């Protein structure tokens, strides 16, 4: 062994791998790793050394931190953060409306309770960011109120309003997403003039039966989820000509209860019949990424705050939890 060189030892151990090939192999390996890293950073490939999601799709696992809870008096069914008051959370149920100040999440304060004893279970909730008007709908009923005033919401009988999955209030129209059958969902529009509402007319059709739906905060996108939890995003920027954005997204949330966009519409939260909150990055609809199940508790409704730093969920027991992102 006297005078034996390192490359001689390498040859003894690996007679089929001549040492002169080693530098070339190392260079090739470095080049491949560089390409893979660049592709992962650009979203072309998942980063293999990040935490895996439960579905094994290679996305980062997001976890929200429980930071507070609300003891509500109305039967919580839906909730929404005020676009005008960053720290105001509105909780809506068959018993009425509650407004909460959540500036201090450890000590949230109830602002007001507006009772509506004749209101039925609410299937959809929307808000007009400009006029600060909140609307909720149940079968045959339409409830609306000015969210900053604390007055009793107005309850209107609307027999034609049934099986509504989402709604929005614009300057001159009220828009509803209505499921017609297993294979058809329609967008209906009613002109409004000084509070008076005209009859609804169908302005667009979608070839799927929506079990849940939601408008994006800017109103330019619509998410429709079918019974199996497949979500299709639609571009509504061109009036009466909705176009699909990307392919249907299989979220795994069967019989979805609720959908919620983040303020910039880059995230979509989906809640299935199992109560699990599933979070998706949809900034690039053609390449959506599963971000895991961030909430530790089961839920039936979810909402993001205007600055996206706070999330609220309605639990299966009717309680409201606050989560920090």
Keywords:
325 residues, five-stranded antiparallel beta sheet, four-stranded antiparallel beta sheet, 2 helices, 9% helix, 43% strand, disordered N terminus
How does this structure look, described?
By secondary structure, the protein is mainly beta. The chain has helices at about 5-15, 20-40, and strands at about 65-70, 75-80, 90-95, 95-100, 110-115, 125-130, 135-140, 140-145, 155, 165-170, 175-180, 185-195, 195, 200-205, 210-215, 220-225, 230-235, 245-250, 260, 265-270, 275-280, 290, 300-305, 310-315, 320-325. The strands form six sheets. Strands 10, 11, 12, 13 and 14 form a five-stranded antiparallel beta sheet that branches. Strands 1-25-24-23 form a four-stranded antiparallel beta sheet, with no helix packed on it. Strands 2-3-4-5 form a four-stranded antiparallel beta sheet, with no helix packed on it. Mean pLDDT is about 80; it is low at about 1-20 and about 35-60.
């Amino acid at each position: 062994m006297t005078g034996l060189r390192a490359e001689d030892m390498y040859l003894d151990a690996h007679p089929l791998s001549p040492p002169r090939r080693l530098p070339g192999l190392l260079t090739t390996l470095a080049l491949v790793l560089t390409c893979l890293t660049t592709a992962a950073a650009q979203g072309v490939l998942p980063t293999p050394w990040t935490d895996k999601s439960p579905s094994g799709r290679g996305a980062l696992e997001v976890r929200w931190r429980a930071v507070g809870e609300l003891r509500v008096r109305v039967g919580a069914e839906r909730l929404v953060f005020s676009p005008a008051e960053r720290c105001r959370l509105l909780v809506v149920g068959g018993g009425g409306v509650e407004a909460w100040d959540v500036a201090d999440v450890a000590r949230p304060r109830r602002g007001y309770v507006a009772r509506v004893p004749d209101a039925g279970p609410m299937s959809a909730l929307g808000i007009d960011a400009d006029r600060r008007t909140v609307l909720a709908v149940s079968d045959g009923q339409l409830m609306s109120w000015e969210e900053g005033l604390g007055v009793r919401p107005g309850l209107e009988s609307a027999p034609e309003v049934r099986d509504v999955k989402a709604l929005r209030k614009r300057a001159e129209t009220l828009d509803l997403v209505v499921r017609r059958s297993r294979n058809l969902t329609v967008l209906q529009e009613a002109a409004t003039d000084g509070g008076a509402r005209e009859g609804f007319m169908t302005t667009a059709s979608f070839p799927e039966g929506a079990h849940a739906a939601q408008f994006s905060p800017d109103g330019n996108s619509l998410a429709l989820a079918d019974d199996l939890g497949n979500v299709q995003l639609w571009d509504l920027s061109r009036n009466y000509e909705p176009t699909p954005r990307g392919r249907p997204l299989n979220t795994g949330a069967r019989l979805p209860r609720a959908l919620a966009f983040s303020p910039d519409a880059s995230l979509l939260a989906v809640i299935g019949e199992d109560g699990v909150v599933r979070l998706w990055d949809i900034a690039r609809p053609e390449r959506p990424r599963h971000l895991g199940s961030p909430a530790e508790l089961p839920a039936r409704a979810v909402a993001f705050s205007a600055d996206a730093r706070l999330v609220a969920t309605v639990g299966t027991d009717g309680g409201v939890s606050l989560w920090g992102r």
